[in-house]
Amino acid sequence: MKKTILSGMMLIFFVASVSAQQQIPNGGFENWTEDTLGYSNPVDWATPNESTLLLQQFTVTQSNDASTGDYSAKLESKLLIGEFVSPGVVTIGEFVVDIPTATASIEGGIPFTDRPITLNGDFKNFPAANDSTIVMAIFTEYIEAKGKTDTIGIGAMYTADVIADWTSFSIPINFFNAHDPDTMNIFVVSSNMVSPNKDSYMFIDNLTLEYEAGIEDIENIVNTSVFPNPASDKLSFSFGEKVNASLNIYSNDGQQIYSGLVNGTDQSIDVSNFAAGTYYFGVFEKSRKISSGQFVISR
Fold first, then answer.
1. CA–CA distance from 289 to each of 84, 100, 113, 190, 265 (Å)?
2. For the chain, what is the mean pLDDT?
3. How far is residue 76 CA from its own chain's centroid?
4. Chosen domain end from 150, 178, 210
5. Nearest-angstrom CA–CA distance, 24 and 44
């Protein structure tokens, strides 16, 4: 009896500890505010919509096409005036427009002191020719002695792939030192920021942060072996049980470079075109990550 009570108390403490870890506000894009001037914004997120109001062009809209829940955010790159294209942007920081120079920047963020290991989410992606979309998390710390803010962690995914069905992603977050951040910014952009294409668009949903020893990792983990490691031409995955899932591979800077279906206990892929370096993988059943790890390509 004492052992049962103690085990229960430990579980309650563990759940409370995990639930205290910070998450992304309105990461499922379920809550929106309607402005009387004719546009809506996701609660807790900034967009360019207010800046493009006079042109009645809105690059972020609420969509009923959702991965989970009722809504997602649809981001569209649109031609505004002349050759100026505004990408669709959602950020938990600030979207700042400089009207005289016709430029914009993404700044700030929200108070944040945890160190997540991945940024996860679901998306559908339709970049136009010569364009790519961006999903990024940035963690910063204000250094009083320097009088400036340093970036101490980042996770990013840039992709030019067309993805017509809802697909899960997991972006590794790399911290450059042992410090805790004081601010986090997350932003999603429907085009690259240098030469956006007016015909690019995407849907984003179900953004979450994953931590070490999260509840899902403990309850749903599937043991995965990768060999040979390091690899050069062929890489084999062996799963501890039969899975029907997607296998995604990411480079060290967070770009998704491979996505394939797994149906069974083994999978082999050709990595002869992968550059030398460290890579990360995630195995997903629907929107749930059931396994992850890393491997090295050596030339």
1. 39, 45, 24, 24, 16
2. 84
3. 18
4. 210
5. 9
Could you tell me if 65 and 145 lie in one domain? Answer: yes
Would you call 151 helix, strand, or coil by DSSP? Answer: strand
**Contact at 8 Å (CB) between 180 and 196?**
no
The pLDDT of residue 13 is above 70? no
Number of domains the chain contains:
2
CA–CA gap between residue 220 and residue 214 (Å, rounded):
10
Query: 181 with 253, same domain?
Result: no
What Rg, from alpha-carbon coordinates, does the chain have?
21
Could you tell me the two tokens for 186? 């997350």
Whether 24 shows a pLDDT value over 80: the answer reads yes
Structure tokens at 141: 């710390």
Give the other-Cβ count within 10 Å of 120's Cβ: 22
Q: What 3-state class would DSSP assign to 218? A: helix
Peptide linkage before 100 cis (omega within 30 of 0): no
Question: Are both 279 and 202 inside the same structural domain?
Answer: no
d(CA 245, CA 260): 9
The type of residue at 9 is: M
Task: State the residue for tokens 């710390």.
Answer: 141
Percent of the chain with pLDDT over 90: 47
pTM: 0.67
Name the amino acid, one letter, at 236: S
3-state DSSP call for residue 133? strand
The verdict on 105 and 206 lying in the same domain is: yes
